[in-house]
Amino acid sequence: MLKADFCTCADTACPYHAINQNGECTACIAKNLKNYEIPACFWKKIGKDANYESDYNFHEFSKEVIKCKNE
Prior knowledge:
The structure is a single chain. This protein is an all-alpha fold. It has one domain (18-70). The protein contains three helices and no strands. It has helices at residues 26-34, 40-45, 58-70. The longest helix has 13 residues, at 58-70. The protein is globular. It starts with 25 loop residues before the first helix and ends with a helix.
C-alpha cells in the first residue's frame, strides 16, 4: 500500500508519481509548487482532469473551483 494511498493521479509513468517515489508525494508536491501548479489529485477532487501540458496552473484551478462552487 502506498503511504499516499489517496493519490488519484493516473499518470504512473510520471517520475514524481507516488508509486515511483516509495509511496511518497513529496516529489510531486515540490515539482508542482516550483511550477505554480496544482497536483492531479486536487483536480480530481473537484471532478476535473487537467491537461498535463498546460492546465495544472493555479489560475486555471481557481477558475474551476469557482465554477464548481457556482454550480
